[in-house]
Amino acid sequence: MTTCAPTKDIFLVHSEELRSINDGYPTVGMVIDEILENGPDREDWDDETVSEAISKWDAHFADNSDWYSEDDSWCNDDRDSLRFDVEGLLGLEF
User: Fold this and answer.
1) Share of the chain above pLDDT 90, in %
2) Which of 40, 70, 76, 79 has the most CB atoms at less than 10 Å from its CB?
3) What is the pTM of this model?
4) d(CA 40, CA 43)
5) DSSP 11-80
6) Would you say 54 and 32 are in contact if contact means Cβ atoms under 8 Å apart?
7) Distance of alpha carbon 71 from the chain centroid
8) Which DSSP helix (H) or strand (E) runs through 7?
9) pLDDT digits (tens, 9 = 90+) for 3-48
10) At residue 61, what are phi and psi to the nearest 5 degrees?
11) Where exactly are the structural domains of the chain?
12) Burial zone of 79 (CB within 10 Å; 0-12 exposed, 13-18 middle, 19+ buried)
């Protein structure tokens, strides 16, 4: 069985569709745009690639505990939720 990896063009289309207002937070499309702008090859994308792209907005939301919380519970903030949504759309599983 042959499988096809998504191409950059497919992500550009998705990025356009996913670029919308998200309570002031970056959207999935905005994060994908950042990943594509940084230019790593699709084969090299991993959770670190996504986290690095999202970190562009960390300083902007530095005082917002909804964006990032150091609480002991895992996956409890909007940054993590966004990261998981992007990873899911890109087909990254960890």
Assistant:
1) 41
2) 79
3) 0.73
4) 8
5) HHHHHHHH-S--TTSPPHHHHHHHHHHH---GGG--HHHHHHHHGGGTTTTTT-TTT----SSTT-SHHH
6) no
7) 21
8) none
9) 444 555 545 444 455 555 566 889 999 999 999 998 768 888 989 9
10) -105, 25
11) 8-90
12) buried
